[in-house]
Amino acid sequence: MDSYAACRIEVDAEIHESVSTRMPTLDEAKILQMGTGIPVMTITRRMTSGGRVVEVADPIIIPGDRAVLDYLIRLR
Predict the structure, then answer these.
(1) 71 falls in which pLDDT band (50, 70, 90)?
(2) Which long-range contacts (CB under 8 A, 24 or more apart) does 50-54 make?
């Protein structure tokens, strides 16, 4: 986050993620050292500042059999 401060960008306290699943491409299966029959999770992560996107990580690809998504959802 220090690089954002150097650019005078104040990052909000939110990161938005979109998560989906699909079968891996042949290249992804090879790079991740996994079989082509195991689904992967794909994540698009967006960091915002003042309602404006300042950083995007897309795609983040994780083998489905090696991943855990752990969320906290506050109702108030």
Answers:
(1) confident
(2) 50/10, 50/12, 54/4, 54/9, 54/11
What type of residue sits at position 35? G
Q: Which tokens hold the place of 26?
A: 């042949």
Report DSSP state, residue 38: S
Do 21 and 65 form a contact (C-beta atoms < 8 A)?
Answer: no
Give Cα 49 to chain centroid, integer Å.
17
CA 4 – CA 25 distance, rounded (Å): 34
Structure tokens at 44: 């698009």
pTM for the model stands at 0.75
Phi, psi (degrees; rounded to nearest 5) at 52: -110, 135
